[in-house]
Write a structure and sequence with these properties.
Elements lengths: L3 E2 L3 E2 H27 L6 H4 L5 H30 L9 H5 L5 H6 L8 H11 L6 H12 L25
Antiparallel strand pairs: 1-2
Helix pairs in contact: 1-3, 1-6, 6-7
Length: about 170
């Protein structure tokens, strides 16, 4: 009988998820290379624009690194399981079902339309039955979004100047 991770995550499901996350990470890295080749300048004006070149690059970096970190976490879970050290897992297995935050955070920064490798990577993640429905909904939101939403323009308001009360010129 297949050993279970948590209450319902079997080793086969874990390995399937690892393969999908690995391929998604490779696709995110492919898209990242395209954005890096465009050579965006990290100026303050470009940095503050949702979907601008700098935010898109940063979002692609987040997604690529997030996939790699998550793959490492899944491998750690698989390693503990294989070694019979299930007691060392703590809440890792249950946390794995929640996916990784870099998808929402990175995807919200990126210009639309998303590059094909990014879309293919996101669709691969949608096909993984390891993830909770809430993570899949976050992935679907990134795929469906018509534009970048972070950072919000209101986040960069210029502070009002404080009057020099009681000061003499």
């Amino acid at each position: 009988m297949e050993r279970e991770i948590g209450s319902d995550i079997g080793n086969d499901r874990l390995v399937t998820a690892m393969r999908a996350v690995d391929e998604a990470g490779r696709l995110f890295e492919e898209a990242l290379a395209v954005y890096q080749a465009r050579g965006p300048k990290r100026t303050s004006e470009e940095f503050n624009v949702a979907g601008g070149p700098v935010q898109t690059l940063q979002g692609a970096e987040e997604m690529a690194l997030g996939a790699r970190r998550f793959l490492t976490e899944l491998a750690l879970i698989a390693g503990y399981r294989t070694a019979g050290l299930d007691d060392r897992l703590g809440g890792r297995a249950e946390a794995a079902r929640a996916g990784f935050a870099a998808i929402r955070g990175g995807g919200s920064r990126m210009a639309r339309p998303l590059l094909d490798p990014t879309l293919r990577g996101l669709r691969l993640l949608l096909g993984v039955d390891l993830f909770d429905p809430s993570f899949k909904e976050e992935v679907e939101e990134v795929v469906r979004a018509e534009r970048a939403t972070y950072p919000e323009p209101s986040a960069f308001r210029v502070p009002a100047t404080v009057p020099a009360v009681g000061r003499t010129p």
